[in-house]
Each structure stands twice: as C-alpha cells, then as structure tokens.
Amino acid sequence: MKPDSKKPEAATTKTPPPTIPPPNWPPEITYLTDQIYTPAVSLELRSKLSRSPSDNISWIKLASDLIITPCPLVSITTITDEKHPACGQRGLFAAQHLIPDSFICLYMGEVHCNSLSDTDPNSDYDLNRIETKTDFNPCLDSEIGLSVDASKAGNESRCTNDYRGVAERPNAEFRDCFIQVPSLKRADGLRWERRVGIFVLSAGKAGKRKAGIKAGEEILVSYGKAFWEGRKTLATFRKDFEMLRIAEAALEL
Length: 253
Ligand SMILES: C[S@@+](CC[C@H](N)C(=O)[O-])C[C@H]1O[C@@H](n2cnc3c(N)ncnc32)[C@H](O)[C@@H]1O
Hints:
Protein name: SET domain-containing protein
Strand content: 15-25%
Number of helices: 3
Helix content: 10-25%
Organism: Zasmidium cellare (Wine cellar mold)
Number of domains: 2
Radius of gyration: 18 Å
InterPro entries: SET_dom (IPR001214), SET_dom_sf (IPR046341)
Order of helices and strands: EEHEEEEEEEEEEEHH
Largest sheet: 4 strands, mixed
Bound molecules: S-adenosylmethionine
CATH superfamily of the largest domain: SET domain
CATH topology of the largest domain: Beta-clip-like
Distance between the termini: 47 Å
Shape: globular
Structural class: alpha/beta
CATH architecture of the largest domain: Beta Complex
Mean pLDDT: 87
Low-confidence stretches: 1-5, 133-137
C-alpha cells in the first residue's frame, strides 16, 4: 500500500501534549513525546517521511506499545566520575537489563532541513553530524534532506554519550525504523512513519556482546570520527581550548 502523497495530512501537524519530563531532565530543554518541525519543513516534505514498510523491508517496525514516554528503560544521570571525559554533564544509563538488538528509545528533537539556513552549526545534538550504522551521514532522511536536532527540545536520547574515553567500544547504535502514527486517510487509522531510534548492539557473530547492556551501565554509541573532526574545526575557529582538548582526546582513541 503506497502512501497518498498528493495531499499531505493536516492532522499530523498537531503539537504533542506536554508530559512530565523524567528525573534529571535539563530544565532549559523542552521535553518531547514526539518530534517537532521547523517552519522550513513543509507538510509536503513531512509526508515523504511516511512510506510503506515494504519500501525498506529491513527496517524494524516498532509497535506503538514500545514507545513509552518517559522511557522506563533508561535513566538520566549527571556524571560525577572525574575520569569520565563528560564529567559534570549528563549521560544515559540502563534502568534495567537490555538484551541485544532491543529497542531503547527514539531520537527525538526538532526536524529541520539540511540547508545551511535551517541548520544550527553550533549544535552538539544534531543527527546530521552523527554517524550511524546505515549511512555515513545519516540524518533522518538523507534522500529528502531532513535531520533531527535535539539541542533545544528532545527526549532522553539526547543524553547518550560517545564511547570514546569511556569504554572500549559502543554498546548501542542508531538505527532507522518505522513507527505507527495516526492517519485520517487509512482505513485502519494508522500509517508508518520514518524515525531514528537507539538500539542495543546485536550479540555479534561470536556472541561477544550477548550480555547486552546491564542495569546501571551507561548506554554509549559512536558519534563517528566526522563528529569529533567537526568539533575540532569549530573549536579551533572559536579558540575554545576546552572543546579542542575534548575533540582531540576523542580522535586519539
Ligand atoms: C549529544 S550530547 C551528549 C549528552 C551530553 N553529555 C549532555 O549532558 O547533554 C554530545 C556532547 O556530549 C559530550 N560528550 C559525549 N560523549 C563524549 C565523550 N566520549 N568524550 C567527551 N565528551 C563527550 C560532548 O560535549 C558532546 O558535544
């Protein structure tokens, strides 16, 4: 069943209702239960996020009961370990044992166009700059040029740190997925829409990661070298020596 792209659905423009944020949520950041959109993201562009799952058969389709806000699987903690390179900042930790390949939470934020005018060059929370398994420059949908920035609004996923300097390797990764959202046009009242989620890494061929992520362990992804190289360039330009030190340390690992 192909989505009807002639007329975008106005019902999807609704702003999600406010929810009580999880403990330790940064008060200056808006807590989201669904992604929001910059004015530059037209309804027509948004409708392109809606695809029949048969278009991308390998992408996981998440049942709506897996998407719970706040997410009970994780907790946000301020890092106090001085050896941790993000000491003093927040990190995302497993609130219970998470098995390999399991879904943790969606990467929520403000969806924006990848044009210079609609991108915040200072954001540390833009998927545009983070490398995922599927794409070198993942975005939300690189074909239509959309990405997600959680610098001003997001959910727990914005607290996920990079593994460099913390652990030997990541234990989680970003993956493309589909979720079901309400549709006025479909007989069943639902359609599939593209999202990016954080998932526990698979056990691996040798089963080395079969333990998944233990309760209390920090959830760590790889932002990719490009993220840290970008930070290094920006830090050099701004003469921000602390940012430069962190970026160089991450690149050395
Ligand atoms: C997406 S945020 C991660 C959450 C962040 N720690 C917070 O409290 O909001 C990305 C920023 O976290 C910090 N960070 C994440 N992983 C790091 C690492 N391995 N080493 C140093 N800083 C890290 C950097 O400041 C980076 O720009």
